[in-house]
Design a protein that fits this description.
By secondary structure, the chain is mainly α. It folds into two domains: 242 residues, no CATH class; 75 residues, no CATH class. The chain has 14 helices and no strands. Helix 2 packs across helix 10 and helix 3 packs antiparallel against helix 5. The longest helix is centred in the N-terminal third of the chain and has 33 residues.
């Protein structure tokens, strides 16, 4: 009954990435909807804003990791160039392994910047074409190439696993949601909650009864997107509608935590690495039923650190680059 809390967390904690991708797509559409006519300057301004949003904060955490690894004695197996510039590379070769999501993020930014060369009314059609194209490519890859197997996955072309990855469906679901709620309201929110919860439960059951692994493994990318990408989209739709109804729990704290989410995302693995290196992970496992309490205290520390980092580092950097536009 009192199993290892770390194994419990690994069973579903990765869903934060799926939510992150859906929210990114949503923000991309809402933040550019005022750009009605396509223009090169709009595309360049957009890509500058997004790159300066991603890289400076990322590099600040990367510098800390570089120091840690230098102190520990080396960079064996690490792709330094990809780690710095987030060019495509296996997540296992990145210094900050959660940065693999930023590789997808930057790629999506580039695609979206190209869309800004077109007027707004054409963008949704182009994105729909992209969505359908990815569906057909993935259908072909699954049915005819059988790429999502232990035997084939690691040798499969990045054409299927990155350039037309199922993860881009999650970005596009966020875009489609933003487009839908521009002029529409969601009348019933409880059914959204039920379906989203049902999909998460189904994902957990699928992990435990069908594959005996987690959907975080690359072999299960299509199932992950189908179940958790859809659940994330429904959850975001629920939160958007509740926000419009002014039903917000702890509004000031929620806003602050949302603003600090990028610092939280980048810092949590580094802080856990430091904490675990002190032997705290092993100690927590010995606390049985109280593991959750100690892990909650660690999470609280990480959240507080992220909020301060956002206020003292991330926000000043954002303001600095904002004046450069």
């Amino acid at each position: 009954m009192h199993g290892n809390i770390f194994s419990y967390m690994s069973q579903i904690g990765y869903v934060g990435v799926d939510i992150f991708f859906v929210i990114s797509g949503y923000i991309m559409w809402t933040s550019t909807q005022h750009i009605l006519h396509g223009h090169t300057s709009s595309a360049l301004k957009f890509i500058f804003k997004r790159f300066t949003r991603i890289y400076p904060i990322y590099w600040s955490f990367l510098l800390l990791l570089l120091l840690i690894h230098a102190f520990k004695g080396g960079f064996n197996g690490i792709d330094i160039f990809s780690s710095i510039f987030l060019t495509f590379s296996s997540s296992s070769t990145l210094l900050l392994q959660v940065a693999w999501t930023l590789q997808y993020e930057l790629y999506f930014y580039l695609i979206f910047s190209l869309l800004l060369l077109f007027s707004k009314r054409y963008r949704i059609y182009l994105l729909t074409i992209l969505f359908i194209t990815i569906i057909f490519i993935q259908f072909y890859a699954i049915v005819f190439l059988d790429i999502y197997t232990v035997k084939n996955f690691n040798t499969t072309s990045t054409f299927y696993t990155f350039w037309f990855s199922p993860f881009f469906i999650e970005f596009l679901l966020g875009v489609f949601l933003a487009f839908y709620v521009e002029k529409r309201r969601i009348k019933r929110v409880f059914p959204l909650f039920l379906v989203a919860t049902g999909l998460v439960v189904l994902a957990l059951l699928y992990q435990h009864t069908a594959i005996h692994a987690t959907l975080a493994d690359g072999y299960y990318m299509p199932q992950r997107v189908l179940l958790l990408g859809t659940a994330s989209t429904l959850l975001l739709a629920l939160l958007v509608e509740l926000n419009r109804r002014e039903v917000i729990i702890f509004p000031n704290f929620s806003l602050l935590l949302g603003n600090a989410s990028y610092s939280l995302y980048l810092s949590h693995t580094i802080l856990l690495l430091i904490i675990y290196s002190l032997g705290i992970r092993t100690a927590i496992k010995d606390f049985g039923a109280y593991q959750g309490i100690f892990m909650s205290l660690i999470m609280l520390f990480i959240i507080i650190f992220s909020i301060f980092y956002y206020k003292w580092v991330e926000l000043p950097l954002m303001k600095f680059f904002k004046h450069k536009i």
